[in-house]
Amino acid sequence: EPTVRTELMEQIPPIAIFLQESRPKFPAAFFEYLMPIVLRYLTDVNNQVRKAGQEALLILLEQDLVAQSDIENKVCPILLDLSAPDSDDEYKVEAVNIICKMASMLSRTTVEHMLLPRFCELCSDGKLFQVRKICAANFGDICNAVGQEATERLLIPKFFELCSDSVWGMRKACAECFMAVSYTTSPEVRRSKLSPLFISLISDTCRWVRQAAFQSLGPFISTFANPSSAGLYIREDGTLSIRPSAQDVNSSSCQPSNNIPLMSSSANAA
Fold first, then answer.
1. Of the residues 95, 113, 195, 234, which has the maximum number of CB atoms within 10 A of its CB?
2. Could you give the count of Cα atoms lying within 13 Å of 211 in the half-sphere of its Cβ?
3. pLDDT tens across 84-108, in order?
4. H or E element, residue 92
């Protein structure tokens, strides 16, 4: 019964946490018995079971309960198979969604060597616009996960493609995550490549794209500021924050710093 398998999946994370806390008594129970179930349910025929398996996997990764070797040798190969060009459409959409969500939880080396090549392929998926939409919406998170060098070498060309996609929802998603992408690049790339690209979005024929671009204009401009002099920096939760100067701290030490909430790229996935 799919409902039984779904319920079982929901119990995996708390059981795994218990085993982690009791590792001297259960040294290998999670890796021998529970992890194989999670991986198997990622390819279950029932979509609710797969969804429960995906949520369980993300919780396990977030809690740092999956060994690096298991991530590279077991989790990533399954996701690469599910997101392959000849994979079923539904499985592919789910796989790219997991890849984007787990990128921030993995080491930069793992993301760059194992997941980034497939992500770049999926950005150009001509069959499913849903796949390209997920890539566009999470583009900033992937840039942050791999760092400046890989972003400028591999991701910026793909970002240009998505910003000129024939589907306006793709261009809108790019406009919404523009600040996160810009923040990962060098000042020169920001000035010479991203600025003209942003102008094209702010002049787009679709008013929804233009509106999203205008809403991202201030955040994009903030990435040109020198953090040491302007005090602007991006927090881990995707918000633009202002670090008070030493003089301000001395004069009003009890006053909280100003945080300007910005929509992170992952929050715009919908």
1. 95
2. 5
3. 988 888 999 999 999 999 998 888 9
4. helix 89-102
For the question of whether the overall pTM of this predicted structure is more than 0.70, the answer is yes
Alpha-carbon span 12 to 245, nearest angstrom = 47
Residue 267's Cβ-count burial label (10 Å; 0-12, 13-18, 19+) is middle
Q: Is 253 exposed, middle or buried (0-12, 13-18, 19+ CB in 10 A)?
A: exposed
**How many Å apart are CA 82 and CA 85, to the nearest integer?**
9
Q: Give CA–CA dist 20/26, Å, rounded.
A: 8
In a shared domain, residues 145 and 231: yes
Does one domain contain both 7 and 133? no
The residue with greater pLDDT, 48 or 22, is 48
Evaluate whether 72 touches 64 at the Cβ level (below 8 Å): no
pLDDT tier for residue 69 given thresholds of 50, 70 and 90: confident
Residues 99/137, Cβ–Cβ less than 8 Å: no
Range(s) of the domain holding residue 74: 67-238
